[in-house]
Amino acid sequence: MAAPVPEPAPEPILEVRGLVKHYPLTSGVLFKKRTGAVKAVDGVDFVLRRGETLGIVGESGCGKSTVARLLCSLERPTAGRIRYRGEDITRLSGKALKAVRRNIQMVFQDPYTSLNPRMTVGDIVGEPFEIHPEAAPKGDRRRRVKELLDVVGLNPEYVNRYPHQFSGGQRQRIGIARGLALRPEIIVADEPVSALDVSVQAQVINLMERLQAEFGLSYVFIAHDLSVVRHISDRVAVMYLGRIVEMGTDEEIYEHATHPYTQALLSAVPVPDPEARERRERIVLSGDVPSPAAIPSGCRFRTRCFKARQRCAVEVPALAVPEWFRSEGGPAAHDSACHFAAEREPPPGPAPRREPDGHGAANAQ
Amino acid sequence: MPEPSLPQPQEPERAIAGTGTGAGMDLAAAEAATVGSGETGRPAGRPRSLWSDAWHDLRRNPVFVLSALVICFLVVIALWPSLIAPGNPLHCDLARAQDGPSPGHPFGYDGQGCDVYTRTVHGARASVTVGVCATAGVAVLGSVLGGLAGYVGGFWDALLSRITDVFFAVPVVLGGLVLLSVVTSSTVWPVVGFLVLLGWPQISRIARGAVVTAKQHDYVQAARALGASGPRILLRHIAPNAVAPVIVVATIALGTFIALEATLSYLGVGLKPPSVSWGIQISAASPYVRNAPHALLWPAGALAVTVLAFIMLGDAVRDALDPKLR
Amino acid sequence: MLLEVRDLHVEFRTREGVAHAVNGVGYAVDAGETLAVLGESGSGKSVTAQAVMGILDTPPGRVTGGQVLFRGRDLLTLPEEERRRIRGAAIAMIFQDALSALNPVMTVGDQLAEMFTVHRGLSRRAARAKAVELMERVRIPAAAQRVRDFPHQFSGGMRQRIMIAMALALEPDLIIADEPTTALDVTVQAQVMDLLADLRREYGMGLILITHDLGVVADVADRIAVMYAGRIVEQAPVHELYKRPAHPYTRGLLDSVPRLDRKGRDLYAIKGLPPSLLRIPPGCAFHPRCPMARDVCRTDVPPLYEVSPTRGSACHFWRECLDGSAGA
Predict the structure, then answer these.
(1) Which residues of chain B register pLDDT less than 70?
(2) pLDDT for residue B5
(3) C195 lies in some domain
(4) Residues in C touching B48 (Cβ below 8 Å)
(5) For B50-325, CATH number?
(6) What is the percent of chain B with per-residue pLDDT over 70, rounded to a whole number?
(7) Is residue A105 classed as helix, strand or coil in its secondary structure?
(8) How far is CA A346 from the centre of its chain?
(9) Chain centroid to CA B193: how far?
(10) Three-state SS at A202
(11) Which of A80, B116, B277, B282 is the most buried (most CB within 10 A)?
(12) Does A304 touch chain B (CB under 8 A)?
């Protein structure tokens, strides 16, 4: 379809600054009284560069899906900016918002609820053209729809079928075809493969990778499965309770994580290799994730952190390259929101382990 | 709300075995021939919607066929009662009061000496008119108000919910006795109006719930992400998915409205003579029930069969439309 | 052998026809051993477990053949009364969705205590004390206070612990865990799996772990049975299977999982989809998706060939697969 895009320039296409989404908690029957707020997203910053895949990982309730909905303008943020090509899109409405939406599309998690059961596949994939008539001339739409189905690996003859006649993986392909119809620059995929079986999951991941190369797409890929995110992402952001706690390239995050939450998360993922089970050392986190309506003071991870000290309760750690790594460079020098950021012992590889001054080994408490 | 919880990455296996939803046709045409093509026993490739699926089921459901036949028959005699009862329902002969069946008068005579057969057949019109009109009114009013409240949400939704609660608290028969006793018209319209007034909250509650459910689905979010307008989302994505429960409840309500009309007429506040209706017949016959039970049994039987037919139809439609069974 | 399933067949009657959910499954688990039953949705792994437990929904389900031998006695032919006794006390089951498996209007303490009052005839007070003890054993903090809480007041991970506590209550010989951690986050999943493994060791029970997650299997299982379309396609000790799969489906699965510990370039994707249980392909059910399929695969159902005394593979060409000649 489209000519392959030449080597993508690393310019930012999407810039997120201080993104906040609070949902008010209310009581009262007819007239609501505000009693608090669920801080689903509580200050998120990142940049998406053209042609890259930014993975966002985190456990349920960390706010990653809310970020997806904010990026797609499905909700208005409480505060913060989302700049698409330099323009803040959070305050847009009407025509201007519609124009932006052509370029930022979403792929949903649940292939069973993301397609309207009363519409045929042709109508579903063709709907973007009806909403944006300028995108394709009327007579051309049917052909375009069939082309899209072909691109995502579905038989174009299936246009007249209904979603319930397809399996989960096929439905996800239909959802991807709908997302592609307007030739967007950015696709925000919220857990696109987590509802699929292993063998089908690989098909959809490969499809998404192929489409990225073919159409020069930029992805925000949101998932709870760290292995999938590593596979598809160029850069990874780890979220905890509404904030990004660590961000870097896949090597920086997966081989040289410096935030204790990331380390715990990575150590918990079962690896499909029985040989690894003797070697692994799991960091078991105590307790449960606090409610996003009552976020702990200071560092929000401190209530479960094995490194927590006095300082963590009072001072909010900023997401930045820790000072003690800055001069050093190397893969450990990446954004990490921890006062005591350090690689895990034993260091996987020859990279020298760095500790902030005056603090000893990791397991102090 | 923060985030929806993760779905179970695996659907329960039984669902697959039981309904065949997960087993699909194949991806590319190449494999399509070999790997189980088409998860259902029906010819693959033919487009099927929920409605055609439902129709496919209904045609094979004896309950539906039987109740539909009864209802068709009722509608026909409501429109053209003279087809099977050419007599004048208002022609009565006091001399024959309470007489039993005789040739040409298979159901006998009532207390006023009117032919029970002719009056029962002609009474269908009032019942069907009240049922159909009240249901139409309730369905339109209820689904518009309920649907909008569910879609808009917030203050208007809360307000509507409280209003419907108030209406639910009104006892229908008592309300009818109070409101309709001041009306002097002998047509069906005051009764229809009253039933719509008291009946719409039921439908509006169903419609609201259905819209709220449909609104949460990702396909509505997907349409919004594409930039679809509010009316488009409402008409194209939400309404078609919310209409099934409304239809089911409305069908069942139709039967109850007919029964209510009879109740109100029996109490003397619904239709009033010289109108002809089953309720009036039952009311008129009840003082003589020992001497002339036939004058009561025939209209009462007609009423029971009619109400039952609509309720059975509603049940059959519910079974056919219930997505859980699909 | 603690439990031995022999040639089990289960069918479901549906509106569309007969779905053959389980077609001759056989596996065995010994005391103190963890057997993982791995498969994708529709492979029949859960249905097999339900048939073993005797909790299959009948109708539409029906066991049409085979034996389930528990300590040598066939559960399928036992009278219902006796079977129920074994079900609660000797074999226990843990489900994926703890919230729907627990009674929402009873406190967890009462639900745990009920196991002791009904099965062991303990007094209410003694049963309550046992309940607290069990909750401590599954490492629920502040157990003495939390016995009075209702299931919805617990987090997902804690609820799964309560499910485990209920399963453990009567000190069963065998636990069947059906996707016990699928609905949980990774950190919580790790806690629950560790707990399950510790308890299994402590009590010396047998454990059948039903899962779709190759990582979880590698972490805890001793032996593994891979299911596809209602059959076992490969059975092996877990180390051997991951190192040298003897069935192309197993190999495909292993190659299609993204790995946390290394950045692979391309994922291998098994082409096509799992078959409909209403129309399982003739011959080897996997042949339409198999890169090594030949004519014989389309006609002859492969038996479970003996690869070694401890391994079996239902592939006509298991030797080739084992030698890695099938290019993935």
Answers:
(1) 1-50, 322-326
(2) 38
(3) yes
(4) none
(5) 1.10.3720.10
(6) 83
(7) strand
(8) 29
(9) 17
(10) helix
(11) B277
(12) no
